[in-house]
Amino acid sequence: MITPQKNTARVDVRRFDEASSRTRRDAVAVEEPLEIRLSVPGHGEHAVAVTMRTPGADFELAAGFLFSEGLIHQRRDVTDLRYCTDVEPQEYNIVTAHLRRGAPFDPASLTRNFYTTSSCGVCGKASLDAVEVKGCLPLPDGGVRLAPEAIRGMPARIRERQAVFDRTGGLHAAGLFGPGGEAGSLAEDVGRHNAVDKIIGGAFLEDGLPLGDHAMAVSGRASFEILQKALAAGVRAVVAVGAPSSLAVDLARRFNMTLIGFTKPDGFNVYTGSERVG
Fold it and tell me: Which residue in the list 84, 120, 123, 136 is annotated as catalytic?
């Protein structure tokens, strides 16, 4: 039986206000490393990445990362996802994805070294070439169409479902929204890219990719890597509470994605793909 990892911890803090100070207990979001391994028949087991994450939905996170990085391709190719058994005491900080014999696999894909942090999922990759989008085609026209009022409400609808954020104030979130703006799955994590991987991995494990009829909303800014992951999953619209980067705008334009930023109750900016809004 797997004992779930805690996603919050209690710490002592000294609280100062205008008149006095006092010691009290406070909740903080847990941040721990997760090592992602890939076991390939005939090629052995390989450590692929280490990411700093908030425990929870670890299998979804591993699957989403491996899929968005192009290391796994179809649900049927993954026979099992499990925590490692060769570490004592078991901390549930290593997940191995096992591929079926004969599954498509490029040994050269393991020559890249991944180390991701909670703030920047592309830090530590061997070179900028390692994050270049390869083998992806522009997404088809159409797909999800978003009403402006649905877009304006997405940040609040994400926020109201962030149970761990309510206790800690320290987590990002990503959520899926259907073609009518209805809320779908949601994930929280100290890393915005991890939250996106958890969403994508959950859809992958349910054999629900691509996500062409969905929009993805993120609680922070829209970075290149978030757009890259959304593209891999077939998401045609990304809605961010914060600003996009120039490279994210370039990627969205090149691959026919709708990119929306600075989303608030009173409005938002559409950087690319405005034909999907209205």
Answer: 120
